[in-house]
Amino acid sequence: MKQQPKYLFPDDYMADPSAHVFEGRLYIYPSHDWESGKPENDNGDHFDMKDYHVFSMESVDGEVIHHGEILRVEDVPWAGRQLWDSDVAHKNGQYFLYFSMKDKTDIFRIGVAISDRPSGPFKPLGNPMDGSYSIDPCIFEDADNQYYMYFGGIWGGQLQYYRNNKLNADVNLPLFHEQALSPKVARLSDDMLSMAEEPRDVLILDETGQPLKQGDTERRFFEASWMHIYQGKYYFSYSTGDTHLLCYAVGDNPYGPFTYQGVILTPVVGWTTHHSIVQFQDKWWLFYHDCVPSDGKTWLRSMKVVELEYDDNGHIKTIEGKQV
Ligand code: FUB
């Protein structure tokens, strides 16, 4: 029988869950929401998170183990504020936590922290990754054991202030009829600590092969990149932000281009929507969050899981975000 949505950790507010199978267990790396009292605005100041925690499960039906705190703002030498979405990758017995945080000048960068266990704690490097910017790192290991980092987010995620990977005081969001801003992807170096190449645009195309436009707000990229492979195809999924949808696009390789396919999750209760997709014990799972337990406070989100299904053509069946 299909698994219904369930909350994973009712004791505290956790969001942006990145799920991976490590050492035969399912590990979840969320953001840790709390009531900071910061005003709500389009820069996302109300998402003022100051630490990360990690969770694991032996099975999706089983007990959720809380392994505790794994990294705090004050542990990071270059820290400014706001620990936003993170992800973890495993290579050669080491675990690498990639995290979004503003530096001391209030610019979002991507940091790396290392542990020899998936449950942490993680020790941060002294500086953010060279050339990193914006938010929401997703680390994808391809079948040939190369690792790729997808990242980016507009509005509070600051992606609109960059062109050709450079901060540019003269730019902002494209106009309605112009090509949408693309998320970014770069292959990682062998030691996992830097990008082995300049970040490239992840192009998302419509059904005629044209890049999506900025005004196509129900399909264009906003934030929350995720990548998985299903039946040999590369599924790039993301949030449309201000239209509150989780969508996906399919391509033939990790760089794309990707052709838009449809909606994975309709709007949840709350402003943001953010997810990960993982295969575990012969089923596919969507990890996500909503704000039902906090009565709709968008900065106090709770992580959930629901089974994700494909049809015979490899299309993801749309899930209703507001089901209980
Ligand atoms: O949790 C802070 C930010 O909210 C994430 O980085 C975004 O993707 C959105 O979920």
Question: What do you see in this structure?
Answer:
- The chain has 324 residues and is an all-beta fold.
- The chain has no helices and 24 strands.
- The protein has strands spanning 6-7, 14-22, 25-32, 51-57, 64-72, 79-81, 86-91, 94-103, 108-115, 123-124, 138-141, 147-151, 162-163, 166-167, 184-187, 200-201, 204-205, 223-230, 233-239, 246-251, 258-265, 276-280, 283-290, 302-308.
- The strands form six sheets. Strands 6, 7, 8, 9 and 10 form a five-stranded antiparallel sheet that branches. A five-stranded mixed sheet has the order 17-21-20-19-18, with no helix packed on it. A four-stranded antiparallel sheet has the order 1-24-23-22, with no helix packed on it.
- A hairpin with a 6-residue loop joins β19 (233-239) and β20.
- It is globular, with a radius of gyration of 18 Å.
- The protein starts with 5 loop residues before the first strand and ends in a 16-residue tail after the last strand.
- Beta-L-arabinofuranose is lined by residues 15-16, 31, 47, 84-85, 100, 135-136, 153, 223-224, 272, 274.
- The site of beta-L-arabinofuranose has 14 residues, from β2 and β18.
- GO terms for molecular function: hydrolase activity.
- Keywords: Carbohydrate metabolism, Glycosidase, Hydrolase, Polysaccharide degradation, Xylan degradation.
- It holds the Pfam family Glyco_hydro_43.
- InterPro entries: Glyco_hydro_43, Glyco_hydro_beta-prop_sf, Glycosyl_Hydrlase_43_Enz.
- Belongs to the glycosyl hydrolase 43 family.
